[in-house]
Amino acid sequence: MPVPGRLHSLLVRVLPRRLGARFALTVVLTNLVAVLVALAFMLIGMRLIAPQLEDTAARIVLDSLDQAVREQAAAADSSAAVFSVSTRMLDAARTGVLPEDLSATLDAYAQTVGASALVLIDSGDQVVYAYGEPADVTALRAALVARGATMWSPGALNLNGKLTVAAARGITGPESETGEGWFSVATPLATDSLFTDAELTIAPPEAPTSAIGEARHPEDTRFDDISVSSAGGVLHLEAEIPGVDARTAATAIYEGEVVAEPWVTSLGPWALGAVLVASLFGLAVGLVVARTIMRPIVGLADVMGAHAADTMAGRTPASPGHDAHLPIELANLIGVFDSTFTELSEHQAALARAKEEALAAKATLDIAFVDSLEGKILVASDAVALINPAACSHLGVRAEDALGASPESCFASAGLLGEDLEVLNPGKLISDSLKRATEAQMRIAGRGTRWIEVHTVTHEPDGRTLLISTRDVTEERRVNELRNEIVGLVSHDLRAPLTVIAGYLDLLGHEIDDASRAKAIASAQRSAARMKELLEDLLAATRAEEMFSPAELGRVALRDLADDIVVSFQHTSNHELHLTSSCPGEVLGEEKRLRQVLVNLVTNAMKYSPEETRIEVSVTCKDGNVTLAVEDGGPGVPPDDREKVFERFARLESGGSGTKPGVGLGLYIVRAIVESHGGGVMVTDRLDGEPGARFEVTLPAAPLALD
């Protein structure tokens, strides 16, 4: 509801300028009005209805006590009724003999319900079964006998000075109409949870009275000799609880505050109306004053929200205007916020620039460090601060294990060895690499022997901050060794044809007959062809690094590749080439490398097979692999040499014709390319049992393409 303009102006002038004083005045005025009105009506009402409150409170206590007795007695009676219709209980009452298992059942029942006493008597009033203290059992039996053959109504019973609830049932069995005995159970009356804020005492019937103030004696048909009195807001109630044996079972003594629930009912509609009017009046006053106080606070919140939005957007917030009636504290607070948000806006812009620079620096770091193919380990204060994936791969360590550890521990698991197979100390390797790049062997389980080059730099005088670089030079060393071996071998083999050519050229310088001249020219041509083959092998060796590993992977259909090669050789070879294929044979690899594999295998087959013989090329697929096979009609490969043929410079004798020309690199290159594609190669006998060799290349099949 909007506040009228005149009332608002009046309150602005009357209320103090300080916000704390305004709130305090609002609370005091509102509460004072409400409390004064409510207190006046409460005092009047209390004087008028005090006696009714006592009686009502006493009735509530007696109702609760009576309900507790009835509920617990009904529970005991329900349990007794269950046993009273039991055939076995009827037999026990008739015969006076209780089976052991029935006795155990009754014992368990008595313990479960917490019985003070439990008895089973026959029609002659003799005890067949008893549970509890002997005195309690005797008292319960006496009460049963005193009541005669009538059935009890369950209720309270004084059992040797203890208040219990008792129930009794005649033993009839499931069909009998007349009782053959009695079954009775007595359990302590539970009153602990009836009243949480008052004291209830169960005293013997003859307990003396302890009333406070003037006692009154209201009537209640459920209890005897009721006494009610009160003093200082404390209610004192005494009442005798009648027992099922027509005697007083106990005296209940209650002391507690007068129950307040009847207040509203006793006060009447006029009291409710008065309280409602006082509450509404106090609420109206509070709303008017609070609305006046909160108006500048709401305006301040709006201004601060606009300032925050400008600041987060990097804009300089506009300076807010000031209400002439604004409290002093809020006016000062707005000034502080104004200057603070201006500074925050400037800092926000600076942070945005710093964030952009940090992102650019991170991108540069990712390129130079994280994504580098060289291993990088940053050491600060003798502990690994950063390590990139390449270094983890080189050293066989996990980044989470390396971070925070010493740099020596990262190299320790690599099994470092020197050029002469001496064990290298990781610390010495790092210190030596500060002077020059140092190479070392590594022996990591499952990866064989690898070579790495380690180079370390530092810009700190104490050397506590290091950047260690590692580079895998295994392939580089292997290619260099291969080149050196081939150059040595080929240079040795080149001397023989060169000597032949030189000799025949010298011979051609003299006068000789035509036959000798033709022979010399033919021999020189054969030697030149031999030199050409050796030079081609040398060229292949210098490019071995390119042939070993695929530069990029793509889907290659081996059937199409084999068909292309077979067709090309059919026009230049004196052999009969034949291709069979049961599948496309798609694999992941580089077509240039795989073409070299098949060319080398077919060339090898033609070299060792007699002319006009058949060479079989096949492509098959099975169990997720593709098999490329080449069968020739040559002499075959002895079992002892089937691994050797794939080694460098391996050349076997061909039957009686000696060693074929070449330096023994063709099959070695085949194995290197196949293994770099994740496959394998082997040589066996022909499948049809005929003379010859069968070379099989097995590669993983390419995964099925997904839509």
Describe the structure.
The longest helix is centred in the N-terminal third of the chain and has 66 residues, at 19-84. Strands 2-1-5-4-3 form a 5-stranded antiparallel sheet, sandwiched between helices. It has 18 helices and 21 strands. Residues 260-266 have low confidence and may be disordered. With 707 residues, the protein is α+β, with helices and mostly antiparallel strands. α2 (19-84) crosses α7, α13 runs antiparallel to α14 and α17 packs antiparallel against α18. The chain has helices spanning 5-14, 19-84, 87-95, 100-113, 134-147, 263-267, 269-312, 328-370, 389-395, 399-402, 407-412, 426-435, 474-508, 514-542, 544-548, 558-570, 591-608, 666-676; strands at 117-122, 127-132, 155-159, 162-170, 181-188, 199-203, 224-231, 234-242, 248-257, 375-380, 383-387, 438-444, 448-458, 465-472, 554-557, 576-581, 586-589, 614-622, 625-631, 680-685, 693-700. Helix content is 49%, strand content 21%.
